[in-house]
Amino acid sequence: MAGSAAPETLSRPSVDPEEVEKFSRIAAEWWDPESKFKPLHKFNPVRLAFISETICAHFGLSGDTPYEGLRVLDIGCGGGLASEPMARLGAKVTGVDAAEANIKTASVHATEQGLDIDYRHGVAEQLLEAGEKPFDVVLNLEVMEHVANPHTFLIDCAKLVRPGGLMICASINRTSKAFALAIVGAEWVMGWLPRGTHRFHKLVQPNELRNALVEGEMQPEPAIGVSYNPLNDQWSLTGDTDVNYMMVAKKTG
Questions:
Q1: 23 touches 30 (CB < 8 A)
Q2: How far is residue 55's CA from residue 92's CA, in Å, rounded to a whole number?
Q3: Spatial separation of the C-alpha atoms in residues 23 and 101, rounded to whole Å
Q4: What is the CA angle 120-149-212, rounded to 5?
Q5: Is 55 a domain residue?
Q6: Would you say the C-alpha torsion 235, 204, 220, 250 has a positive or negative sign?
Q7: Distances (CA, A) of 153 to 98, 133, 159, 216
Q8: CATH code of the domain covering residue 194
Q9: Domain containing 125: what range?
Q10: Is residue 131 classed as helix, strand or coil in its secondary structure?
Q11: Is 253 exposed, middle or buried (0-12, 13-18, 19+ CB in 10 A)?
Q12: C-beta of residue 168 within 8 angstroms of C-beta of residue 245
């Protein structure tokens, strides 16, 4: 699972080689707010505020470092845009990504920030096979639409949540509105993301996410929409799940 893992260890059901290669090419840009990841930097504050409120409410936490004692897994962590805030709030964070270039970028940046984050080059199946202890919280953010088999991937991720723990998911819906805004608009017209970042047929609908979570013995809550307002250049939580959405699920048992 370490960053030196041989490439063949990534020949797993959840790995889509094209997706790994795509993000590897732009890994060095993760922490540049004006790079190809600019939309994610703009979206991140709303996403992180929701995650923080959800975790604190679920576990009854408060204070400057409320996550002290919590083990958090950021699966498909990319350059660490969610892992680092979790660590700053006191969590013991493990970040896993199938693209080794992403892990190298994340590790260097965390070191520069004085943060101790356990970054690993690998996939969810490897954690399970290694007998990894289940986590209090699993973050599954904008990754399920980039794996080979989202349903299997989500069930594997559910196995990594301890009983009573949480999985917080974020993705893009597979709707005509999402195609128009998130693919045609964001990638083809505005150029906010590289063309091909998202493939329409791989997007996951909330009901598909919910079904996989239930099969993974999770109790999912209704999806929450996240919408962009071009007039004020701001993201906010809404009731519209047609494009971006998040879903929280609790592990039963």
A1: no
A2: 14
A3: 8
A4: 95
A5: yes
A6: negative
A7: 13, 18, 10, 10
A8: 3.40.50.150
A9: 7-251
A10: coil
A11: exposed
A12: no
Q: Provide the 10 A C-beta neighbour count for residue 63.
A: 10
Task: Determine, yes or no, domain membership for 156.
Answer: yes
* Tokens 């490897």 sit on residue: 126
So what's the pLDDT on residue 1? 35
Contact assessment for residue 145 and residue 174, using Cβ atoms and an 8 Å cutoff: no
Q: Give 205-244 pLDDT, tens digit per residue.
A: 999 999 999 999 999 999 999 998 878 888 899 999 999 9
Q: Are 128 and 153 in contact (CB under 8 A)?
A: no
Q: Report the C-alpha gap between 168 and 221 in whole angstroms.
A: 10
Residue 180, SS3?
helix
Instruction: Confirm whether 2 is domain-assigned.
Output: no
**Helix residue spans in 25-149 (DSSP H):** 38-59, 83-88, 100-112, 124-129
Residue 134: closest CA among 73, 219, 214: 73
Structural domain contains residue 119:
yes
**What does the alpha-carbon distance between residue 37 and residue 231 come to, in Å, rounded to a whole number?**
21
Place of tokens 């590897």: 24
pTM of the model: 0.86
Q: How many domains would you assign to the chain?
A: 1
| Backbone φ and ψ of 24, nearest 5° | -65, -35
Q: Which tens digits make up the pLDDT trace of 132-142? A: 999 999 999 99
The amino acid at 139? L
Backbone angles phi, psi at 92, to 5 degrees: -90, 105
Cβ count near 170 (within 10 Å): 22
